[in-house]
Write a structure and sequence with these properties.
13 helices; about 75% helix; globular; two-stranded antiparallel sheet; single chain; mainly alpha
Length: about 300
């Protein structure tokens, strides 16, 4: 049967037509609140204790979310195939967000096109973790394009990668770990609490990030961008970021657009000397769409093959 294919295409259609559900109905928003509640209980000091607490939180939460949903889905499948598919569509859709990423980048571009830099900075907060209050117009454009590239992996390629391999539980488990990383997987207040989540997220994204970089390269050819420079930049500059994964997609995008993407004090990915303009944001969105389409075709092919052979 083609159940996996129906779930995949249904989830994509739901994402493209409806976008993100309000937080009160969004499973990832519920997860974020649950994580925030746990953070109130962590030890106030002791790096080792805080690290162990972080490990425990990630493992237990992933199991607490994934296992019950898996058995609930299996129960629905035994009752009614349509109910199972609809339930799975909703869950899978909430592990990725292609339309949401597009819209977040579009809000930054729209604000800049209207000359409202302050509003554009505010919208950039939804895309990056850096402080945006003092960013120049060029830095806001860079941040939007960087996020467009990097989140191709986190928001689309990786969830479907784990769905293709492990089914719905794989996509859900990935989203739980990635949400932990987004909330606490950085230096500062949560450094030792979030170390395990950050490293586990790096491991889970190791293959998807490199696939995403390759998809950006291929999409650059489809979109008549600088695909040769995209390849050269990706191979030569992917190691310039602190993250072992983010540099692959961002350097590929920088090269494809012939621009330099920079986070001051962190990295500078030199893909060329073209000016950072609103057109560059539009081009990055086009490449994002083409790269996502390439990956969708691959995952669809996998699901068809599984359905035929299974």
């Amino acid at each position: 049967m083609m159940t996996g294919l129906y779930i995949l295409l249904g989830a994509l259609l739901l994402d493209l037509l409806a976008g993100e559900a309000p937080n009160r109905f969004h499973p990832v928003a519920w997860l974020g609140k649950f994580i925030s509640l746990q953070l109130k209980l962590v030890p106030a000091d002791g790096n080792v204790r805080r690290f162990i607490c972080g490990v425990t939180m990630v493992i237990l939460t992933t199991a607490m979310v994934t296992v019950p949903l898996y058995f609930l889905a299996q129960y629905l499948q035994s009752l009614n195939a349509i109910a199972y598919i609809l339930f799975s569509i909703y869950l899978l859709k909430n592990t990725f967000s292609l339309r949401g990423l597009w819209q977040a980048v579009q809000k930054v571009k729209t604000s800049l096109s209207g000359g409202d830099l302050i509003k554009a900075r505010w919208h950039t907060n939804a895309l990056v973790s850096r402080k945006t209050e003092d960013l120049s117009k060029g830095q806001v454009i860079s941040a939007a394009i960087e996020s467009c590239a990097e989140n191709l992996c986190d928001s689309f390629v990786a969830p479907l990668f784990y769905f293709a391999i492990f089914g719905l539980p794989g996509a859900i488990a990935y989203r739980v770990v990635n949400t932990f990383d987004a909330m606490i997987g950085f230096h500062g207040k949560w450094e030792y609490i979030g170390k395990f989540a950050a490293r586990l997220d790096d491991v889970l994204n190791f293959i998807p990030a490199r696939l995403s970089g390759a998809f950006i390269f291929l999409a650059s050819a489809i979109c008549s961008a600088d695909f040769a420079d995209s390849w050269r930049a990706m191979l030569g500059q992917h190691g310039k970021t602190e993250s072992p994964n983010a540099g692959w997609t961002m350097s590929a995008m920088a090269g494809s657009l012939g621009i330099t993407l920079e986070k001051p004090g962190a990295y500078c990915l030199n893909g060329g000397g073209r000016e950072l303009t609103l057109t560059a944001i539009t081009r990055s969105q086009q490449i994002l769409a083409a790269a996502a389409a390439i990956w969708l075709l691959i995952v669809t092919g996998v699901e068809v093959l599984v359905g035929i052979t299974g």
